[in-house]
């Protein structure tokens, strides 16, 4: 007679947990949560995530009815849960040191990318331990774990906010520097346009009539008045054009006033 294969589960077969708990687990770890049946408490938690982790790695903590703890990869005893919480605290401290050393937008963005999944995992970790605390109201270890998870969640939220503020400030500062540089370039270009406008008429007139001291107009006008006349006309025309450009530039830069109501 053919028998159906047993469904896969993330829970090890060596643990003597109620079948009800096994039936509530699938092949994937799922969200962080606490489950209770027949005096057995099962915590389904996540390892501290990294920035590039595509999937969350689960950690299982089993509390027997007699109060003895067992984990799937951190050993036995209540210290296993404490070590799990310490790993979250160490990960947040590493991000804190990276935030202190960050000076550029790219560095702040890297810290923010590492803090985002860590902050979410810390929030869900506290929620799972709070749920476990309600299931076993008299367990002092769970009370301490819940309080420690709250401190971790709070630290992660504060650090995440600090990194966001620092990133926004760095972006704003960089934008201000770029705006200042663009303004300086615009002023330089404007000055160059004024110089070009000042000497363009002279260049045009000298190109048409020539710039030699001896000029055909000197047959009509005594030398060197023809040469000086060309230069004078060019300078006057250039000054007029330069003043027009300067006035037009100031008019564009002047902010518009709001209409009165």
Task: Explain what this protein looks like in three dimensions.
The chain is 61% helix and 8% strand. The chain contains five helices and four strands, in the order αββββαααα. A four-stranded antiparallel beta sheet has the order 1-2-3-4, covered by helices on one side. β1 (33-37) and β2 (40-46) form a beta hairpin. α2 packs antiparallel against α3 (105-135). The longest helix has 70 residues, at 140-209.
Set out the fold topology.
Blueprint: H1 19-23, E1 33-37, E2 40-46, E3 58-63, E4 69-71, H2 78-101, H3 105-135, H4 140-209, H5 225-253
Antiparallel strand pairs: 1-2, 2-3, 3-4
Helix pairs in contact: 2-3, 2-4, 3-4, 4-5
Features:
261 residues; alpha+beta; four-stranded antiparallel beta sheet; 5 helices; 61% helix; disordered N terminus; disordered C terminus
**How many H/I helical runs?**
5
Overall mean pLDDT stands at 81
Order of helices and strands: HEEEEHHHH
What share of residues are in beta strands? Answer: 5-15%
* Multimeric organization: single chain
The percent range for helix content is 55-70%
Give the beta-strand count.
Answer: 4
Please list the strands of the largest sheet in the order they lie side by side: 1-2-3-4
Intertermini distance: 91 Å
Class by helix and strand content? alpha+beta
Task: Return residue spans where pLDDT drops below 50 for at least 5 consecutive residues.
Answer: 1-6, 255-261
How would a crystallographer describe the biggest sheet?
4 strands, antiparallel
> Rough shape?
rod-shaped
The Cα radius of gyration reads 38 Å
